[in-house]
From TrEMBL:
<dbReference type="InterPro" id="IPR040442">
    <property type="entry name" value="Pyrv_kinase-like_dom_sf"/>
</dbReference>
<dbReference type="InterPro" id="IPR006319">
    <property type="entry name" value="PEP_synth"/>
</dbReference>
<dbReference type="InterPro" id="IPR002192">
    <property type="entry name" value="PPDK_AMP/ATP-bd"/>
</dbReference>
<dbReference type="InterPro" id="IPR008279">
    <property type="entry name" value="PEP-util_enz_mobile_dom"/>
</dbReference>
<feature type="domain" description="PEP-utilising enzyme mobile">
    <location>
        <begin position="356"/>
        <end position="427"/>
    </location>
</feature>
<dbReference type="InterPro" id="IPR015813">
    <property type="entry name" value="Pyrv/PenolPyrv_kinase-like_dom"/>
</dbReference>
<dbReference type="GO" id="GO:0008986">
    <property type="term" value="F:pyruvate, water dikinase activity"/>
</dbReference>
<keyword id="KW-0418">Kinase</keyword>
<dbReference type="Pfam" id="PF00391">
    <property type="entry name" value="PEP-utilizers"/>
</dbReference>
<keyword id="KW-0808">Transferase</keyword>
<comment type="similarity">
    <text>Belongs to the PEP-utilizing enzyme family.</text>
</comment>
<keyword id="KW-0479">Metal-binding</keyword>
<dbReference type="Pfam" id="PF02896">
    <property type="entry name" value="PEP-utilizers_C"/>
</dbReference>
<dbReference type="InterPro" id="IPR000121">
    <property type="entry name" value="PEP_util_C"/>
</dbReference>
<dbReference type="GO" id="GO:0046872">
    <property type="term" value="F:metal ion binding"/>
</dbReference>
<keyword id="KW-0547">Nucleotide-binding</keyword>
<dbReference type="Pfam" id="PF01326">
    <property type="entry name" value="PPDK_N"/>
</dbReference>
Amino acid sequence: MENLYWLEKINPEDCPLVGDKAFYLSRIFQKGYPVVPGFVPSAGLWREFVVNLTSSESLVADLPNSSLHLDVNNWRQLQQVASRLRQEVISASLPSSWVSQVYQASKYLTDNCLILRPSLSISSANYHLAGNISGLFKPVFCAVNEQSIMNGLKQTWGQIFGARSILYWQSVGVNLHHINLAVLVQPVENAIASGSIKFHTSALEVEATYGLGVAITRGEVLPDVYYINHNTGGIEEKHLGNKIVAYSVDGSKAVTNDKCLFSYTVSQEQQKLYALPDEFLEEIITLGNQLVRELGRKLTIKWTITANPPKLYITQVNVPRSLTPHLLLKGIGAAKGKINASAYVIGNIQPKPRQIPKDVILVAPIITTEWFPILHNVRGIITEKGGLTSHGAILSRELGIPAIVSARNATNIIQTGERILLDGDRGEVYYSSSSEDSLKDGEKIAQGDQEDFDFSHEKSYGRDGFSNHRLLPMIGTKLLVNLSQSNLIEKVRNLPVDGVGLLRSELMLLNILHGENPYNWIANGRETELLDRLSKQIQEFVQAFTPRPIFYRSLDWYHQDLSSYHGRENSPASILGEHGTASYLKNPGVFELELKALARLQKDGYSNIYLMLPFVRTVEEFIFCQRKVVEFGLTENPQFQLWIMAEVPSVLFLLPEYIKSGVRGISIGTNDLTQLILGVDRETGDLSPLLNQRHPAIMGAISQLIKMAQAGGISCSICGQAPVLYPEIIDQLIQWGIDSISVEPEAVERTYHTIASAEQRLILAAARKQLRG
């Protein structure tokens, strides 16, 4: 059969016909490495099959200009077209001579089970395969009989018309005439363990799981990981994975086209052990080092250890021709930094997971504050909805991890286990190589955001006590920081800030609730325990920043954030729900507990803790809260101040009344103020262009609030995202007389310099005006 190539006989000129995957595997096979044998029905068969299809004109047309009139941005239409094309492939017949010859070749390899792997090459001078397009194709398992083989070939070929595949080819401008799709056919035997070898600058990374490697490919297990020193061959580090599921094959159970791949549950005892037998680890290390010398570091090797007899084989070797990542989708960059990692996808119909694997990029439709406790080990976040001030964006900035929001169809386009590059600066997601270079770059940039917190100087209080390492200009406007995570205290306390302008109680408290609603703690008689935890948590911040002020904002949760409270699981999500101080009137229990915690800290000698009330709608709400504050003795400390968030538009009309009632200061929350004045939900990414915090209506409202605060003799701060997203407005804020600006830790340094420049310009302008006068 002229269109069938055995691995041991593939020549360099055969690469376009057998594809890259088969070509590189044949290279090491012919050098004597232990490769699982196989053969390749060539791309010529694929081409002939497509040409002979009934509607071949539409199938082989250049998709961007075809009669399909395909709009890849319309996900529903894309799915429908893809489904139609795949169905046409599946329902077509194959020449019996083809099937017979592939069947006979398969019988030479095994009588159990086969794996069919797509193997591509591109015949276009203007295009090379991106570093990793493995997410577009999946291997197909089939039994060794003619019916199963025929169906398996068609399933493999049909993947070229998957929705994600069509999207990819159209976005990079490749038409089907340029795609050479061959199929690598190999026998599959049951395995003791399987995994991969990846190469980094100073170490080999070995992954392993029980059974066949499909469990890793599908993202159903967290494999064991070993880091091996290149020079010594010793284990530098190893981590036990989470291997609950494994896979085996049994061709005897397959009748005609029935499956021959089966999953099974790994026993509790085995889950506690490493899957890779110790006697094979040294062999894998030796094999990996040899292949590095043969092919270079930019490759990934897949291996398996057969069960009977136990023997190590190489199943795949991926050597990317081009390491240039391919743009997969765009969204809004919500948190700066780049990261290269495996994706973990949560679909629309899936509930919030109890836990998320470590070091992944989480992809989800939307993220609310209740997700916060499970996000600490995530490397990056991508959401389909939300804007720059949505909860997902704020959570990612709190954690200091790169994030993109409003990435349409992300959960459909990206698959669990795919390696992607997330660029939070540009709001872009790329298919990524798993090579050492791109991985290192991603880690380096992501860590850089954290390192920005270190100003390389020591600071006692205010802006005195700087070392000679760096001399910052003096500024008159107070610079504060928004915080919620105690693990950032040590880095942030030495920044040139005058205190904490916003201590987000919701995110802080989620770390100590262990997934339980605070109201349930009280209802179940655990109020004292919760009070102790809350007091201790707040004390960490107060103690670290003394004598600088800490503005503790009391809890501001939505129904969806407290879904377990009194059976309100079905409460509709709403930006205008019972959150903020209105919820305290209905059930003051948790608010009273917060006041007890603040009073306890005052009695312990901490006088730098102030209270800020969230989402205050009316003066009556404020008076209710103020009476509670007096009741719990907080006002006995003459330094204590009670502030409100200025984020509900009614404050523009009621601020004088608030001041008369005892408000000592306001902090302008531009996130909520913007969405309520402009009527745009901040969680709706599609409307993000309308959610403009520089809009004249918003800037007018901010100016009015600053002037009203000045007239009433109270302090005015701003803690929303506006100064961070649009630093150019800081000039106006200072001209209007803002007392302080509070920003995220990563924005402190640039905000400091922006304030300094704005103040210098203001001083210079005043001096020039005086000279002219």
